[in-house]
Amino acid sequence: MTATQQRAAAPRRSHNRRQTARRSGAGSRVLHVVAGLVLAAGAVAVQSLALSADDMGMPLTYTGAKGQDVDAGRFSVRVQKVSSAKAIKVQNKNVPTEQVFLVVEAAATVPAEPVHLGMPNLLAADGKVYAASDKIDKTKTLAHPWIQPGWWTTGRFVFEVPASALPGAQAVFQLPVSGLYSEPLPPEAQIDLGIDDATAKQLTTAPAAVFDLDEKKK
Questions:
Q1: What secondary structure does DSSP assign to 130-174, as a single string?
Q2: Where is the composition biased (Basic residues) (predicted)?
Q3: How many CB atoms lie within 10 A of CB 121?
């Protein structure tokens, strides 16, 4: 019986050793994970320290194309339609141009915190940047309403540009820049408007006589 008891006891001791080994292995794995996290955090810290003030002010750019939902983190935007006009009707007045009015119809939403969109820029294929037209009051654009979580808010932006700026043009959407606080690595959505040479020619040669900005979107 003693021998039997000893044999019965042996597996328990062996089992205890396996438990100890497993505990030791688990502890080792935890240490490896912690060490990995520390190294990763250190790498991020070093990378952050390596960024200059100018680098921290550069935007994080998220790209897409017309018709796509472009998620820039704090906001998402979608370009729905692009059209052109010789004049813009706003507040019962026709505002003419000697160039081309490019009207970008867009929609935006946010995942959590309500925001305003900033006035976007138009990036031409040659690298030139055109601001949204100052002939159109901000209150008549998508930069005016609060962008709320849970649904898409639609609106328009108007650019006054030469015909040469249309082929390959992209709209660049950002959040407003505060004079008191500069957000590090601010997000931006850069969206290809889908204007090839043929589309650019059509927008230039056959624009609407007047685009009514007060007309309700359908």
A1: EEPPTTS-GGGSTTSSPB-BTS-EEEEEEEEE-GGG-TT-EEEEE
A2: 10-21
A3: 19
Contact indicator for 143, 119 with CB cutoff of 8 Å: yes
Are 87 and 95 contacting, i.e. CB atoms less than 8 angstroms apart? yes
| Residue 111 buriedness (CB in 10 A; 0-12 / 13-18 / 19+) | exposed
Q: What does residue 60 show for φ and ψ, rounded to 5 degrees?
A: -90, 115
pLDDT tens digits in sequence order for the chain, 218 residues long: 333 333 333 333 333 434 434 444 544 554 554 455 455 455 444 444 556 656 666 899 999 999 999 999 999 999 999 999 999 999 899 999 999 999 999 999 999 999 999 999 999 999 999 999 999 999 999 999 999 999 999 999 999 999 999 999 999 999 998 766 667 889 999 999 999 999 999 999 999 999 999 886 65
CATH 3.40.30.10 assigned to domain 59-212? The reply is no
Output the pTM of the full model. 0.74
Closest by CA to 144, choosing from 135, 159, 155, is 155
The token duo for 31 is 């240490």
E-assigned strand segments in the chain: 60-65, 70-71, 76-90, 93-109, 121-123, 129-131, 153-161, 170-174, 187-192, 211-212
Token pair, residue 41, equals 């955090």
